[in-house]
Write a structure and sequence with these properties.
Blueprint: H1 2-16, H2 20-26, E1 34-39, H3 46-50, E2 57-62, H4 76-87, E3 92-98, H5 102-108, H6 117-122, H7 127-136, H8 142-163, H9 165-172, E4 177-184, E5 189-194, E6 199-202, H10 220-224
Parallel strand pairs: 1-2, 1-3, 3-4
Antiparallel strand pairs: 4-5, 5-6
Helix pairs in contact: 7-8
Bound molecules: zinc ion (ZN).
The site of zinc ion (ZN) has 7 residues, from helix 5.
Length: 236
Amino acid sequence: MQKLVDGIRRVQLGVVEPKRAKFARLANGQSPLAMFITCADSRINPNLITQTDPGDLFIVRNVGNLVPPHRANNSGEAAAVEFAILGLGIRDIIVCGHTHCGAMQGLIDRPRLKGLPEVRRWLRHADSTRQIIEQNYGHLEGQARLTAAGQENVLVQLQNLQTLPTVAALISRQEIRLHGWMYKIDTGEVFGYHPDQRQFLPLVPTAKPPAPHVRVRARARAAALPVQRKPARAGR
Ligand SMILES: [Zn+2]
């Protein structure tokens, strides 16, 4: 814990102090650029990988970056989405999966979940992902299969997102942009889903697709996703 306490001290002196006025303004309210839904995995840092500041991202994290569909339960995720849209006026929502995801590993290799009943129950919100992998990706194994699961899961969760009434209402008016992203742990690269090409492509031109690159299987639902190619708004 000492590393954490030391960090707090350094931030107070080296980060907050020089920007005291900016931090003080944050007390007046928030106006985030986007909502960012990602995995609880400690290797992901949304503000670091997007170089954003406090107040820029409305972040929700959980095991496997899942979004329970409408009526699944009174989920914190649904509440956060509702607040993001109605309370904060956010119109860009990013679901960001990642390579080497432990949740996806457990999802496609169920014996790994032995002794983890809560995780097993939680991952039911990704049942569709498991079915998609089992039925369509039998030709892949190891990291390739895991990467495919991560990518497909982002698309499944974007679908779940659209079952939430607040999101559905905005989609019908084309007033919200949903983004499917994939973060590559070992390089820090980010890939965005392109519905027209049915694959994840680098958000920054110099980045290469996650190796081994997996082309997402064509499905009507994927093509119908109102996922935009452009990244979250640069500013408001
Ligand atoms: Zn994960």
